[in-house]
């Protein structure tokens, strides 16, 4: 419960919060062992842990919100690991999933050149990209024209937004966020997460339909992530009750354990959410099909 609710910037608590569902699952094992051992105090303690787990985790498995009835879009978010991910594989996934808008974290100059050579411009001809060394670069690619491009100051990494105009005339703001990771500089991550909330809550760019693609370094069990959902924005996975969509780490012999990559939506609702592997990246890319909600007063 404390891990789920705390906004502490103590490093160990932030790291443990990412694994809170697994910590809570240990309560089931404790309940089983305490029951077998007929340890009454252990049973009651385990029941409390399991109860808290259900209370904190159940909401992400329950679909919420009205379905959209407007234009449908497929959005993808991919962290390409310091620009080293396989560009041809990423472009192949864009093609296979019929992606309309892509946000990329950790975009370098070399990665930008590799993606161009792999043919990303043939699928997503419009872009707003700011490559940078190491993990700092960011990019947005779109099937549709991008205008009102903006980069946000005051962050360790590049943070972007742009307005995407659909053939129907509907306009969707696309945000690409990548705050510094919570480790080792947890304090800085906390500041940047709050600044991202300010952008989503109060900036002119956040009005109307909008999509966020982001590596936030945060899971649903981080209070600072859930605070973003106090704005108009909703987690696409939460909208359909998908539970935790794990994206990291993706380069180990075991499956990804935590969901730190997200697609958020405002004025839209997800129909599907899933992940796809990108070789040489330590993140799975997250893909969501979203449908815009008809604006108030529309026929």
TrEMBL record:
<feature type="transmembrane region" description="Helical">
    <location>
        <begin position="12"/>
        <end position="34"/>
    </location>
</feature>
<protein>
    <submittedName>
        <fullName>Endonuclease/exonuclease/phosphatase family protein</fullName>
    </submittedName>
</protein>
<dbReference type="InterPro" id="IPR036691">
    <property type="entry name" value="Endo/exonu/phosph_ase_sf"/>
</dbReference>
<keyword id="KW-0269">Exonuclease</keyword>
<dbReference type="GO" id="GO:0004527">
    <property type="term" value="F:exonuclease activity"/>
</dbReference>
<keyword id="KW-0540">Nuclease</keyword>
<feature type="transmembrane region" description="Helical">
    <location>
        <begin position="41"/>
        <end position="62"/>
    </location>
</feature>
<keyword id="KW-0378">Hydrolase</keyword>
<keyword id="KW-0472">Membrane</keyword>
<keyword id="KW-0812">Transmembrane</keyword>
<dbReference type="GO" id="GO:0004519">
    <property type="term" value="F:endonuclease activity"/>
</dbReference>
<feature type="domain" description="Endonuclease/exonuclease/phosphatase">
    <location>
        <begin position="76"/>
        <end position="283"/>
    </location>
</feature>
<keyword id="KW-0255">Endonuclease</keyword>
<dbReference type="Pfam" id="PF03372">
    <property type="entry name" value="Exo_endo_phos"/>
</dbReference>
<dbReference type="InterPro" id="IPR005135">
    <property type="entry name" value="Endo/exonuclease/phosphatase"/>
</dbReference>
<keyword id="KW-1133">Transmembrane helix</keyword>
